[in-house]
Design goal:
single chain; 162 residues; mainly alpha; N-utilizing Substance Protein B Homolog, Chain A; two-stranded antiparallel ribbon; 8 helices; 2% strand; globular
Amino acid sequence: MTGGTWAVSTPDRASGSDHRRPISGARRKARKRAVDILYEADIRGIDPVAMLADRVGAPGLPPVNDYTITLVEGVTAHRARIDDVLSEHSEGWSLPRMPAVDRAVLRLGLYELLWAPDVPDAVAIDEAVELAKTLSTDDSPRFVNGVLGRIAGIADQLRAIL
């Protein structure tokens, strides 16, 4: 992905040509909104799905994208396993020590990496890194990339035991 605009190249098997498809702006916005909800719920110590339910259809708030709902529900459903995997692979950082935004981004990125079969691994990582660039510290994108990259190397083994 270059400049956050294009997805990973996918060769056209019939013609052998290399096509790039645009990243969905709706999915990028859905990821950002999901991170916002996960972050706020984490800081406030409340259930993200309950918080999400309060926002769906609430007057005065923008509509909640279906993919945002999928992400928040998915992260929440798999949170214990997500946190175990993150703790194991975030060298030198415990989850409580991480900035809350980084925790939210990593949880979402790991959910997409392991439980979203329609999202290629490289896209899950790239999108998480882009969120970290936008929402967190200067060091966060490298940290997020490193953690998710290590996990991506063993993602197939992890998926087999989930």
